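Limitations

Structures in this collection are predictions, not experimental determinations, and the ligand pose is part of the prediction. Treat each record accordingly. The example that follows, with pyridoxal-5'-phosphate as the small molecule, is included so readers can see exactly what is and is not provided: the inputs are given verbatim, and the output is the predicted complex.
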Amino acid sequence: MPALETMVTQHLAERHAAHLLRAIQPDAQTGLVSFATNDYLGLSQEPTVVAAGEQALAQWGAGAGASRLVQELSPGYTKLEAALAAAKGTEAALVFGSGYLAMLGVIPALVGKGDLVMADRLIHASMLDAVKLSGARLLRFSHNDLSILNNKLEINRNKFNNCLILTESVFSMDGDVSPLEAMRALADQHDAWLLSDDAHGFGVVETPRVAHLQMGTLSKAVGGYGGYVCCKAPVREYLVNHARTLIYSTALPPGVVASAEAGVRWIMQQQGISLPLQRARKFTHGLGLPEAESAIVPVVIGTAEDALKASEALKNKGFYVPVMRPPTVPKGTARLRFSFSRLHTEVQVEALIRAVRECGCVA
Ligand SMILES: *Cc1c(COP(=O)(O)O)cnc(C)c1O
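Predicted complex:
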């Protein structure tokens, strides 16, 4: 057995050679206009959202002190969950420590050994980790391919007890949307439950509110931190009793809860096509790309090395655009991932279009 340091050093050297080494990004990409954020509406800086958090922090203190099942300190959770349920058109909502923790809590509470999970090929790592933890059998289907999903359900469904279908309403690496209504019909037909992750949809694009379990995060367009599931009231009660990441982890700090509620309320008052979507569409029109379906626009480059070079070229022109590489995306599809925010100006988007053209990233 190699020494710990030898093992990790070798591994890192291999990753580096393959252009796959990851690093935590330095604080501010100073001076660069960033197209990397998930804070699509800029709500993390929105005065009402910040003030709600400050007020709750002053009133209730810095930390929650215990799990929600032991002692619920602030009344903020009730208001936040009511706002989320109203936003999603469900009877109830349940808030978790983060989107990742929500997945890790909800999925293993609902399925386990003897159950089947059907997952879109491109779903987020948090859902895959949750399925692993659950012990349920995992089958994948080609991205957004309902006929393959249907075939696999026809062949496999009756060999299992419960069945859960996993998808994202807006896909985090491709920015496209899933056919949720047709999927819900398929789920009903095969006696399965549909779970959709709206992490990149909420606040940016209206996606159909048809999944049995509508999940997402409070850390993207909402501008704060936390995760949620919106569902029927008895499902919520069941999860309070069975979701281990809720039961065995400390509640969110009161200020975080209050800011999230203000963020959700802000989103509910928003009207018309969201600005992030408008900006993304301006970008795709400008470059002759397929019209953006969300605030996320991928430009697939190919190898990790070339994608890094493209990002570097944009950096030299004043733009920070992150690179997504395997294993986050399939091999050979390393890409630039542009994400647009309400805070980007039209002029910035126009300058970005010129820069991308000059770099030769888009044919
Ligand atoms: C970001 C993200 C999550 C995790 O949410 P956090 O609140 O950041 O833990 C889950 N699913 C998808 C699709 C995401 O993009």
